[in-house]
Amino acid sequence: MIFSFLNRLPIKKITVATADVNGRQAQTVLEGLLADLPELLMACVVELATGKMLASYTSRKEYNPNHISLRYAKILRTMNEALDKGAWPGGELLDSTLMLDDQLHHLRPLHNGEWYCMLAVRMADANLGIAKEIMRRHAN
Amino acid sequence: MSPKDTVKGILADLPTLVAVAVVETETGMPLASHANIADFDIETAAAYNTEVVKSKLKAIQALKLNQTLQDILLTLTDQLHLLKLSPAGDKFIYLAVNSKDTNLAQARQIMKAHSASLN
């Protein structure tokens, strides 16, 4: 049986999946991002190999991190495979960005490439340079 | 403008680029390409790029954001890789540059200027 009130997405609140050291570390990353960029639409820290969510944040129910955590994990695995096979010369992946009509999604591997951190923000609230710098500062 | 003209135009604007290609989204194969380094396997790079483009489109669709994908940017240690879909979405431009001589804004602007006329 599905209880809708149990599956409701917490809004404007950091949700930590596990109460262990990894969960706390992921929470610290998101707290740092939110402190510097309170207008964040969505942010999450995800385990790359499994797509498991470690911590997440969303500003509204339309931006559900659970809907994209696995897909972005798959994209990063494809990118890592391309780099391992030498299809893209130029060193390791530092970050990746999707520019949409009025928002950007920025992803950065962390924790020795075992996790990734993703943030989504409106371009009216932050530009790519700011998003990259804030992410670099907190997801290291 | 044909894919070959697009590649030529980008190369004229950015002679120091690492590689440029116009890729068919459906097959992942380059329609026209140019690389300035000898060991660059443009076919393999194009194939992986296509997977990235398709997966990103799916991710955006999953969120039902009603947004179109404009650019995909990858920062590597020494290079920047950029992907931009054509207006119809059936092709995309792939551009790789050295981050020492070209910054993200320059590369994006050149790609934007050439993607509008790509058909």
What secondary-structure arrangement, pairings included, does this model have?
The complex is a heterodimer of chains A (140) and B (119).
Chain A (H helix, E strand, L loop, with lengths): L14 E2 L4 H16 L5 E6 L5 E6 L10 H16 L8 E7 L3 E8 L4 E8 L5 H11 L2
Chain B lengths: L2 H11 L5 E6 L5 E6 L6 H22 L7 E6 L2 E7 L5 E8 L5 H12 L4
Antiparallel strand pairs in B: 1-2, 1-5, 3-4, 4-5
CATH superfamily of chain B: Dynein light chain 2a, cytoplasmic
What is the number of E strands of chain A?
Answer: 6
Oligomer: heterodimer
Give the proportion of residues in helices of chain B. 25-40%
What separation lies between the terminal Cα atoms of chain B? Answer: 6 Å
The number of distinct β-strands of chain B equals 5
**CATH architecture level-2 label of chain A:** 2-Layer Sandwich
CATH level 1 name of chain A = Alpha Beta
CATH homologous superfamily grouping of chain A? Dynein light chain 2a, cytoplasmic
Major β-sheet strand ordering of chain A: 1-3-2-6-5-4
SS summary, helix count of chain B: 3
- Biggest interface and its residues per chain? A-B, 35 and 38 residues
The number of domains of chain B is 1
Gyration radius of chain B, in Å: 13 Å
Number of helices of chain A: 3
Would you give an account of this structure?
The complex is a heterodimer of chains A (140) and B (119). Chain A has 140 residues and is α+β, with helices and mostly antiparallel strands. Helices cover 31% and strands 26% of the residues of chain A. Chain A has three helices and six strands; from the N terminus they run βαββαβββα. In chain A, strands 1-3-2-6-5-4 form a six-stranded antiparallel beta sheet, sandwiched between helices. Chain B is an alpha+beta fold and 119 residues long. Chain B has one domain: Beta-Lactamase (2-Layer Sandwich). Chain B is built from three helices and five strands, in the order αββαβββα. Chain B starts with a helix and ends with a helix. The model of chain B has no long low-confidence stretch (mean pLDDT 93).
